[in-house]
Amino acid sequence: MGYLAITRCPGRYPRHRNGGKLRQRGRKPVLCRNLVFTYFAPGLQEALQRAIAARLAPGGYLAIGAHERLPAEAGDLVPLAPKLPIYRKAPA
What proportions of the chain, in percent to the nearest 5, are helix, strand and coil? Predict the structure, then answer.
């Protein structure tokens, strides 16, 4: 099983580790730690949260940094536990 790790990069879209853009759909785990939800402006955080959720496979997971919080209503992203920064997308 592959995973998507979002990293800092120049350009319009965050890229995952092997250089592809965050446009693929159906990812199971997405690792987005200590970047988007820490350093980006609130409007961009919300836009990227929606983009990540749209590309996450049903039942897939989003892991963010331990001290980060999602900026908006998580929608179909459900926290696994109150203090754990891992969210699961609702199954289809």
Answer: 20, 35, 45
Q: How many CB atoms lie within 10 A of CB 1?
A: 5
Helix, coil or strand: residue 30: strand
In terms of Cβ atoms closer than 10 Å to its own Cβ (0-12, 13-18, 19+), residue 49 is buried
Cα–Cα distance between 63 and 5 in angstroms, integer? 10
Using a 10 angstrom Cβ sphere, with 0-12 exposed, 13-18 middle and 19 or more buried, the burial of residue 29 is middle
CATH topology of domain 4-89: Rossmann fold (3.40.50)
Long-range contacts of 80-87 (CB under 8 A, 24+ apart): 86/61, 86/62, 87/61, 87/62, 87/63
* Tens of pLDDT, residues 7-56: 554 444 444 444 445 455 566 788 888 888 888 898 888 888 888 888 88
